[in-house]
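Supplementary Methods S3. Input chains for the assembly prediction are listed below.
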Amino acid sequence: MLTQTLTHPLTSTPILPLAYLTIFAFGIVIGSFLNVCIYRIPRHETVVTTPSHCMNCGYPLRWFDLIPVFSWLALRGRCRKCGERISVQYPLIEAGNGLLWVATFALCGFSVLTLLDCLAVSALLVISLIDARTFEIPFSCNVFIGILGIFATIFDFGHMINHIAGFFGVALLLLLVYVLTGGRGIGGGDIKLMAATGLLLGFGCNLAGFLFGCLYASVIHIARMKLSGAESMLAMGPYLAAGTLTAMWFGERIVTWYLGFLV
Ligand SMILES: [Zn+2]
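Predicted structure tokens for the full assembly:
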């Protein structure tokens, strides 16, 4: 947890605003790629080689059509060629990812581990949207977070045991629920997700994230069922993602605050 002011090594002037602006810029560029993932992964299309095009007329997007957030605003949300509406989801995901990256760096400090956390947050964003629509967490996204977890374990080797315990902790508990309920209580994708985030964040933080996720799911989902008649079928992905984000951002502070009552 770092709260130091970042200053230029020679002039000692604060460079924090510039650092955050750079992080935001990288965040919205990655956000642009997340839009491609959210659209193509459920359709089992490749996310790397096919160039971006208008979904209506097939007009191949040029570089100036692909500037995150700004292109959408400049075109007022319509295709340059056929005028078909382009979903507001695109700029929202881009800007959202940029803001999530800035918040993660601001709350977790400037380190390699925070960069890994940011990439995981982006994957959680993709998981949330896809799971909410298809009730399926893409295996590739879980693998991606798992790989980030392996890097985190290597960079944070002083706490290697914590990362390995994180991999098994919540996931084994959910596996038990899965077996006991015959697969109705929890989805296989949720179990793999909790194993991956556990490896990344360590045992305590992951457990806190899971508990927050369950809390959000019970409060928000029941409210949605009551208010808007949402289906009783529950996609856990978005809630687990939100819980994991809460633990990643505030976990250490919450544990310190909680332990304050015990001593
Ligand atoms: Zn078009």
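The CA atoms of residues 50 and 152 lie 31 Å apart. The pocket of zinc ion is lined by residues 54, 56-57, 59, 79, 81-82, 84 (CB under 6 Å).
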